[in-house]
Amino acid sequence: MGVRPPADDSDEPDVIEFGIAALDARLSEIAIEYPADARTVRERAGHVEVPYDATGHSVTVADALDEADVREFENEQELLNALHPVFERKREATGTSLLSQLRSLVPF
Q: Which domain of life is it from (predicted)?
C-alpha cells in the first residue's frame, strides 16, 4: 500500500510505502533462495523493519513471520501473500486506537 504525503517543497519521496509494498521493496535487496522456510527467511531478513501504516509504525520480518500461518514459501509472492494478513491486522489495530482517531481530527 502507499499514501501520498502532504504537498510541500521538501525532498521527501512522492509516495510513502508501507505493508506489502514496503516489504516487497526491501526483499528485492536481500538474497533469499526459494523455496524457503520461515527459518531461512528469518535468518536472511528477520532484522528488517517494515512499516505497516502511513504513520510509520513498523514490525520486523521476524515478528511478522511469528504471526503468519504459513511456514513454507515456494516463491517471494507466497511469502508476501502469507504476511499480508499480518500487516493488515496490525494496520487495522493501530487505526482504531484512540490516539489515531484524535490525530485524524487534527489537520497537520
A: Archaea
Q: Which residues are 50's β-sheet partners?
A: 59
What is the three-class DSSP state of 16? strand
> How do the pLDDT tens digits run along the chain, 108 residues long?
555 555 555 565 567 788 999 999 999 999 999 999 999 999 999 999 999 988 888 999 999 999 999 999 999 999 999 999 999 999 888 766 666 556 666 765
Q: 21-26 — which CB contacts under 8 Å span 24+ positions?
A: 22/50, 22/51, 23/50, 23/61, 23/80, 23/83, 23/87, 24/76, 24/80, 26/50
Dihedral of CA atoms 18, 56, 65, 40 in degrees, nearest 10, equals 80
Query: What Cα–Cα distance (Å) separates residue 90 from each residue in 5, 9, 33, 94, 108?
Result: 21, 31, 27, 6, 24
Q: Is the Cα dihedral 88, 62, 21, 58 positive or negative? A: positive
